[in-house]
Amino acid sequence: MFEGIITPIVTPIKRDTAESLNLAAMEQLVNHLIKKGVSGIFPLGSNGEFHVLDNQEKMAFAKAVIDHVNGRVPVYVGTGACSTKETIQLSKQAESLGADALSVITPYFLRPTDEELIQHYIQVAESVKIPIILYNIPKATGMNISASVLKTLTKVENICGIKDSSGDLANLKSYIEAAEGTKIKVLVGSDSKILAGYQMGATGAIAGTSNLITETLVGLDRAYRAGNLEEAQKLQQDIEELRNVLPMGTVPSILKQAVEMAGIAEVGPARKPVQEPNTQVESKVKKMLAYYYL
Asked: Which CATH fold topology does 4-239 show?
């Protein structure tokens, strides 16, 4: 676990008035990703729109993913919430459903002190037996997990990793240094920094772009591990063609549209208030897809 390319899957949603979950499309997407060689499936991450799903939907979706994956690869379930109480409730439920590990984002909207954050993670970790990955994404939460907080949390038995989506290589390096000599694995959460992170000592990546360009991401990982740096560099650069269009819509609208247009699975739109891309953006998505699929 905690190595290779882990896909934080988009959550397929039907184009109905209830914006209901499309579990058949989830199965199609998961089968595609596992066939292409990903090392793990991660439901309820940022690209999975965890923030707009209610808790009943979250656990129903997590259960469906765990059951369908059926042990083929590890399943990492996102269970973070603003309160310690709710995070513990979701974490216990995910564990009972058979999750292999949990990803716990820092509380968002509020900004806890370092000590509050440490106690939050300790209490969540003590509530379950399975491994926990800390999830750092300051652009969305308004706070950055410090290396000193990580160093303190290395002593907690089942805190086993951290995903860094800060995009800051100095921050990533500080985590790798804090984790040195411990059980903690550092995972890259910024798709443009995967190779640089690997070269610093990261063990894997949780990469949203792998929903669509799976072969590119898995190929990058395999090329680096095989010592083929030139190929890894080329594949790292290839990710930029997709990354250049992603900012044209609110996350994850462009990624979901591209997954559909590529014929991978009918993952549907993002939940409102996020709108589907307009025709002008759609033409740019088509051009991007031609780069990878023609």
From this structure: TIM Barrel (3.20.20)
